[in-house]
Amino acid sequence: MQSRSPIRQCVGCGARRDKIELLRVVNNKGEILVDPGGRTPGRGAYLCPNMDCLDKAVEKGALKKALRKDISDEIYEKISEEIKHD
Ligand SMILES: [Zn+2]
């Protein structure tokens, strides 16, 4: 039996996409991790895997709000590295 994966919303552009097409970023006990497998527990946010959506999400404060954490340069770099790897 096949089941579709859940739909999630990008915090950057607001597009609704299949969860597996989005990059999950998670606040795991105060540490921001990029979680490609979607298995890390914690408060998560989803992004289209491109820099436009990351920049939008940071600029409008949506990522900060979703993760309840300030997006430092270090965190920004970590997420952009993951996007560039894709
Ligand atoms: Zn997006």
UniProtKB/TrEMBL annotation:
It holds the Pfam family YlxR. Residues 8-80 form the YlxR domain. SUPFAM superfamilies: YlxR-like (SSF64376). InterPro entries: YlxR (IPR037465), YlxR-like_sf (IPR035931), YlxR_dom (IPR007393). This is YlxR domain-containing protein. The lineage of its organism: Bacteria, Bacillati, Bacillota, Clostridia, Halanaerobiales.
